[in-house]
């Protein structure tokens, strides 16, 4: 059953068939089909689901699709589904909604769920505190394993996960973690402290992407999230961490292509939404491209004396832009996986200088040979030296820009491939014409 099949059935008035087919699908599959439908048909199809199925399917929809349904149906019809969501998913959905709609939904929550959601909403967007679940089971190190198991039985039904159990002292400071397997298979009278392991944890104010990546890299089922005094606030589960990393990767890929992420499937996105995702970056690139035009205007006299120099401008700007983009992409990835930090700027610069110089030398020799054979040794020398210089400069700048962005708390993906390409175009042309004036004496 595909989204197109459901769209056709709705258009033909076969509503009973639509409801029946959706009800047969697992919630994840039904949500995937609804996500791919346009807003109008999605709303109709969702109304046809039985109440219990609708609650389960709503929880599996993307935040953008959830928000669209709420705007179409109203808060009253979504209240049950909203109440059943985990607090971290609820907070993500509230970010998509207008303030008045968000407030109405929060008022519809039970007091306990409202308090749990407020804990998550108290942290800034992008922090792991905003993505953690405050619903967990904790035990104390002086508990017996039997007492710990009993506590898990009593409170585990409402917890996000029970496979990794945070161990806290009586001031709620994190001491470690214990495995449910160890507690179940142990001597009931042995203290939990015997099975407590050193925890891998995150501070609530930490960037969600870096915490999530650490969670996945260490294969942690549930990572405790603490405040600055190391008091336990919540947990980040592996599946939530995977969602955070995937969303960050989608955003980085989009910005590397000079656009923003679309929140709805492409075929169902409005022209305005697609335009908005692209046009801002085009304005930025257009403004930066003015630098290139200004450089050409400054060296107009040089070009008039040796017209052959103009023929190599596309080659040199292309090499510089691609070299800078390669370096930026590599370092951005290294930042995301915490292989480097802004403190490693000197090491990154040193490495990229050497890489750029090596690539420039190899390409420069080829450029010199081709240009010298056709336009003479003097032009060949200019091209060869420029390629070496541009590659070295572009690799260094491209490698350092993501580190600079991280230092000033800007997403390194903002320094996208097109932006760096345009920057390298302007500076590369300045280097090109300066070398030409020196070598050719013009």
UniProtKB/TrEMBL annotation:
Pfam families: CBS, MgtE, MgtE_N
Signal peptide as annotated in the record: none
Subcellular location: Cell membrane; Membrane
CDD domains linked: CBS_pair_Mg_transporter
Record keywords, A-Z: CBS domain, Cell membrane, Magnesium, Membrane, Metal-binding, Transmembrane, Transmembrane helix, Transport
Gene3D superfamilies (alphabetical): CBS-domain, MgtE N-terminal domain-like, SLC41 divalent cation transporters, integral membrane domain
PROSITE patterns (UniProt xref): CBS
Superkingdom field: Bacteria
Membrane-crossing segments per the record: 279-299, 355-376, 382-401, 413-435
Topology class, membrane: Multi-pass membrane protein
Coiled-coil ranges from the UniProt annotation: none
Keyword Hydrolase: no
Domain CBS: 132-194, 195-251
The keyword Nucleus belongs to this UniProt entry's keyword annotation: no
InterPro entries, per database record: CBS_dom, CBS_dom_sf, Mg_transptr_MgtE_intracell_dom, MgtE_N_sf, MgtE_transporter, SLC41_membr_dom, SLC41_membr_dom_sf
Family: Belongs to the SLC41A transporter family.
Role this protein plays: Acts as a magnesium transporter.
Subunit structure: Homodimer.
Stated name of the protein: Magnesium transporter MgtE
Organism from which the protein derives: Gordonia hydrophobica
Gene label: mgtE
